[in-house]
């Protein structure tokens, strides 16, 4: 979705953390699919089903409430 959140204060995103796969990249597709697979950790999500798009939107809302926005990815 292009929004960059500062998750640096959460150990789960550190190199040995449970969600390290998401750090430093746009994991939109992986979040929409509820996937921790490296191959799903990419920015394309437009082709997903409406249900998966809603899951992504829910994650965006979650991150927005919990972490500061520090930037936007430009294409």
Describe this structure in words.
The chain is built from 2 helices and 2 strands. The chain has helices at residues 28-33, 50-66, and strands at 3-5, 69-72. The longest helix has 17 residues, at 50-66. It is globular, with a radius of gyration of 12 Å.
- Spatial order of the strands forming the largest sheet: 1-2
Distance between the termini: 11 Å
Q: Main β-sheet: number of strands, strand sense, barrel status?
A: 2 strands, antiparallel
Low-pLDDT parts are: none
Rg from C-alpha positions? 12 Å
Helix content: 25-40%
Instruction: Estimate what percentage of residues fall within beta strands.
Output: 5-15%
Q: What is the typical, i.e. mean, pLDDT?
A: 94
Gross morphology: globular
Which structural class matches the secondary elements? Answer: alpha+beta
Helix and strand run? EHHE
Number of strands: 2
Short structural summary:
With 75 residues, the chain is of the alpha+beta class. The chain has helices at residues 28-33, 50-66, and strands at residues 3-5, 69-72.
């Amino acid at each position: 979705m292009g929004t960059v959140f500062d998750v640096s204060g959460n150990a789960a995103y550190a190199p040995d953390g449970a969600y390290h796969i998401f750090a430093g990249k746009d994991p939109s597709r992986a979040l929409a699919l509820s996937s921790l697979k490296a191959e799903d950790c990419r920015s394309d999500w437009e082709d997903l089903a409406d249900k998966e798009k809603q899951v992504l939107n829910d994650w965006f809302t979650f991150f927005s409430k919990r972490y500061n926005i520090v930037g936007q990815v430009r294409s």
